[in-house]
Amino acid sequence: MNFLSCILILVSICTNLTEGTLIKKYNNSHAAGGFIFTAFVSLFSMVFFIITDRNGFSVPPQLWIYAIIAGVLYCISSFLTYIALSCGSFAISMLILSYGLIFNIVYGLFFLKEEADIFTYLGLMLIMISLFLTRGKKEQNKENKKISFKWLISILISFFGSGMFGVISRMQQIRFDNSCTNEFMIIVLCFSAIVLFATGMMTDGKNTGYVIKHGSIYTILAGISNGLTNYMVLVVNEMVPISLASPIRSGVKIIITFLISKLIFREQFLKRQIAGVLLGTLALVLLNL
């Protein structure tokens, strides 16, 4: 990998975790209007792609198929990520989402026939072990079990949705030779914003004003962070094999996530989870040999 792709991966991780931190902070302080909140995040993220679009929104008819499928996946995963962060650990929630790299790795190695050597496979194996070790711990009381079940369902569906969204994104890049990146994301985010806002108005519309009053700064910053993350991920996918970029992104994310969780949210971790972080670091070294 070249220096620029490494910088883009690092920045995309930071913006992704910034978005997660803002969502968690909003939940800790307010915790109201989840559908409306995530709709505004999608809206502000869409504005980012509109501003950076240079093709005049030229959309091939076939792109709509990819964009609508991706929009459904994005809509579901973004809302359930919000739910997972509202009732579970920031570190474990963000790290479980890192399992989404499995979809990209399988797609890159087995469908795109990307090259790999012994260090690649060893690094991938260590990433998987690292993610297993950093999983959550069992809760001890009934209240936590109830919360944990809600968190588990949310994070698992979000993991699947976000993982498949990454694959669909790469598929459309290949299909249209990277010529419709912004248009693709504009449709996806517009679809997500409309569906989430409509659902929010039907289920908790009374909280719209509350979200605007107390959550505007969170949604604006989270939306910009979301836009930057998705933009840089798509750019890196053009520069680096997806089977390599995905595990590297995940490995670095493990380290930074744990630092944020420890310093900002004061979360405690088991020894095996710390060991998982160290294995993730070793995996990064192997993947870059």
Describe, in plain words, how this protein is organized in 3D.
The chain has 289 residues and is mainly alpha-helical. The chain is built from eleven helices and no strands. The longest helix has 34 residues, at 142-175. Mean pLDDT is 83; it is low at 139-146.
Class per helix and strand makeup: mainly alpha
Shape: globular
Percent of residues in β-strands: under 5%
Q: How many helices does DSSP assign? A: 11
Keywords:
globular, 11 helices, single chain, 289 residues, mainly alpha, 0% strand
Report a brief summary of the structure.
This protein has helices spanning 3-29, 34-52, 63-87, 90-97, 101-111, 118-133, 142-175, 181-204, 208-239, 242-263, 271-287.
